[in-house]
């Protein structure tokens, strides 16, 4: 891992860097269906929700990545489930930043009362799938032709990770935790 890297909760002063890193990932066309670039004001609403942790990787003084939980569904029965996104600046990828972010994020989600985090990942996104596998996510299955990006159909792999109480009683092998 990058020496001196700190993982900490995001603050308003990080919003510009968060948006810039997101936009870089979006332009790469390997991470998301989104094509509209974001400004700091667009991501400001991500902060301040105690159920949805947002962490940044501070290198130090330079934000090189972030990970954020967001609403899965608004129905109360799903209140303990969050989706997440993780983005690392291209110059900092492959050095363990995503790993460090995820290692801090999962306990933060558990402490926030979540029982599951999940994501939809393009099956071609080997780095993202490897990161999730390392942290005990289960590959649930592939949504076929889940949307179009630049006019081309793309599939999505769903990954899920149980947290806290939800891990109790899950048969060995069904949850790769630990
Ligand atoms: C996905 C992403 C967050 C991973 O962060 P990172 O800091 O580059 O990853 P790390 O260095 O912590 O490595 C995590 C794992 O991914 C693997 N990995 C990293 N880059 C890889 C690549 N280009 N191809 C395949 N595997 C890769 C590492 O080997 C490691 O796996 P291991 O634990 O089995 O050794 C980062 O590459 C990124 O921001 N990509 C663009 C945005 C994106 O796709 N976000 C995810 C949207 S779902």
Brief summary of the model shown:
With 178 residues, the protein is of the alpha+beta class. It is 24% helix and 31% strand.
Keyphrases for this structure?
178 residues; alpha+beta; Aminopeptidase; 7-stranded mixed sheet; 4 helices; 7 strands; binds coenzyme A
- Tally of discrete structural domains: 1
- The averaged pLDDT comes out at 95
The unreliable regions are none
Small molecules (ligands, ions, cofactors) in the structure:
coenzyme A
Structural class label: alpha+beta
Q: What is the CA-based Rg, rounded?
A: 16 Å
- Give me the CATH architecture, please: 3-Layer(aba) Sandwich
CATH topology: Aminopeptidase
What overall geometry do the principal axes of the alpha carbons give? Answer: globular
Estimate the strand proportion.
25-35%
The termini sit apart by 20 Å
Beta strands, count? 7
Main beta-sheet strand count, sense and barrel state: 7 strands, mixed
How many helical stretches?
Answer: 4
- Under CATH at level 1, the class stands as Alpha Beta
Q: What percentage of residues falls in helices of 4 or more residues?
A: 10-25%
Q: Look at the structure and name the CATH superfamily.
A: Gcn5-related N-acetyltransferase (GNAT)
Give me the side-by-side strand order of the main sheet.
1-2-3-4-5-7-6
> N-to-C SSE series?
EHHEEEHEHEE
